[in-house]
Write a structure and sequence with these properties.
By secondary structure, the protein is an alpha+beta fold. The chain contains 16 helices and 22 strands. The strands form seven sheets. A five-stranded parallel β-sheet has the order 3-2-1-4-5. It has a four-stranded antiparallel β-sheet with strand order 10-9-14-15, with helices on both faces. Strands 13-16-21-20 form a four-stranded antiparallel β-sheet.
């Protein structure tokens, strides 16, 4: 538990999260080092770093190479590595390699990450802590024995059931099964998928909770045994188990939220958790009964809504904890006034199954501002949408005094964007802003399936795009060629 001084941080990620971490690193007067693959040579985060190391031709594989990342940290004399979010941040081999090479890992210990990364082991830990659980199995035996056990379980709890990869995460490795025939056919496919995605073919079953809400609790834990919560987030609006829009705090009775906060803290303590983490629950939309789902052992994409609501810089606290420091956030500071919403603005076509717009260039980029608007992005005018990586352009977080003002602010800010070139998810979010159930705060994980009308939005006005392009050209050339 000795104090460890960090002076230089390797940010082992790319895009907007690399920039977000970099900003806090520089605020703390530390040096920021980044790594990049060749397709990211012109990326904004590479330009802004104190130092940048090319680690390979890519795509993707070099960012996920534990040995290369640790080599880069040693070569650039970094004291610590921050993995951001994504596959590498969930790989316990990275903190193990860091410990072996004398580099501080800004995240939880390897053994804790490994335990919580395995869904069956995580259930066992949380059961010891007394958290409520959805009925489920242990890892299914291979072959006919596993199929027979799965059939018995499904007959006992009733269909539908969920097949889940024991090492899955981020919404991956999940299959919903409606009857026995599907169960028998899907189990071998689920094993093959789990082996391919996670190098672990273990799977298990859970009772499927129909149309729940997905609510998560952000926690911070130091090496000295102190664990605190930073409130809740409602992440129910999803596509294929991938979150699209996040709200803080969740709109639940205070007694329910207090019980969830207590459960999350108990679970983190039982797991021996250290650093920032998120305990995720499913909540019955009718009764508000809740069940533990999983614990994410990293910074979440949606951490911004919590930061805006609480005023707590989560990344800063991650670094302080990694240095061996004690949490110094008194409970009275965690006052969750108002509402905050984050939307992920991607270069995708929602009407075409969210098809990425890779390869297109952002000809014009003008972003909104004003009270209560935060932007975390890596896009700029002239930016080429990568075909090799995800299509996220910018995350926008808005905050208001109450739900109604926050919705008005979200709509105003979305309308303030001018992005010419790729299609984006902006008109899709604008349609959600106007949808009556969403405006009343009524939504669950089935929202997109039960509200297909949000995909019937009109195409953006092309004249606005033309005007935006003209304004950008005037700024770029310092002259209006149309004025003569």
């Amino acid at each position: 538990m000795a104090s460890r001084r960090i002076k230089r941080v390797l940010i082992a990620n790319r895009g907007e999260i690399a920039l977000r971490i970099m900003r806090t690193v520089k605020e703390m007067e530390l040096e920021a080092v980044v790594v990049y693959e060749k397709p990211d040579s012109d990326a904004y985060y590479v330009r802004l770093a104190d130092h940048a190391l090319l680690i390979g031709d890519g795509p993707r594989k070099d960012y996920l190479d534990v040995e290369k990342i640790v080599w880069a940290a040693k070569k650039s004399n970094c004291d610590a590595i921050h993995p951001g979010y994504g596959f590498l941040s969930e790989n316990p081999d990275l903190p193990e390699a860091c410990e072996r090479e004398g580099v501080i890992f800004i995240g939880p210990p390897a053994n804790v990450m490994r335990d919580l990364g395995n869904k069956v082991t995580a259930r066992e830990i949380m059961e010891r802590a007394g958290l409520p659980f959805i009925p489920g199995t242990s890892n299914l035996p291979k072959g006919e024995a596993g199929i027979e056990e799965a059939i018995r379980f499904a007959e006992r709890v009733g269909y539908p059931v969920m097949i889940k990869a024991a090492s899955g995460g981020g919404g991956r490795g999940i299959r919903k099964v409606l009857n026995e025939g599907e169960l028998i056919s899907q189990i071998p496919l689920a094993r093959a998928e789990a082996l391919s995605a996670f190098k672990d073919e273990n799977i298990y079953l859970e009772k499927c909770i129909e149309a729940p809400r997905h609510v998560e609790i952000q926690v911070l834990a130091d090496e000295h045994g102190q664990v605190i919560h930073l409130g809740s987030r409602d992440c129910s609006i999803q596509r294929r188990h991938q979150k699209l829009l996040e709200i803080a705090p969740a709109d639940l009775p205070s007694s329910v939220l207090s019980a969830m906060y207590e459960a999350a803290i108990k679970g983190a303590k039982e797991a021996g958790y250290v650093n920032a983490g998120t305990v995720e629950f499913l909540v019955d939309s009718r009764t508000n009964e809740f069940w533990f789902m999983e614990m994410n052992t990293r910074l979440q994409v949606e951490h911004t809504v919590t930061e805006e609501l609480t005023g707590v810089d989560i990344v800063r606290n991650q670094i302080l904890i990694a240095q061996g420091g004690k949490l110094d956030i008194p409970e009275e500071r965690i006052r969750l006034y108002g509402k905050a919403i984050q939307v992920r603005i991607n270069a995708e076509d929602p009407k075409n199954n969210f098809m990425p717009e890779g390869g297109k260039r952002v000809e014009v980029y003008q972003s909104p501002g004003g009270p209560g608007v935060r932007l975390d992005g890596a896009v700029y005018q002239g930016y080429k949408i990568p075909t090799e990586y995800d299509s996220l352009l910018v995350k926008m977080t808005v905050r208001g005094y109450d739900w109604e003002q926050t919705l008005q602010r979200l709509k105003r800010a979305l309308q303030g964007f001018v992005i010419v070139g790729p299609k984006t998810t902006i008109p899709f979010y604008l349609a959600i802003c106007d949808e009556p159930d969403f405006r009343r705060g009524k939504f669950d994980t089935s929202y997109l399936e039960t509200h297909p009308e949000v995909f019937s939005y009109p195409e953006p006005e092309r004249e606005i795009a033309k005007l935006g392009k003209l304004i950008a050209e005037i700024h770029a050339r310092k002259i209006n060629k149309y004025a003569y």
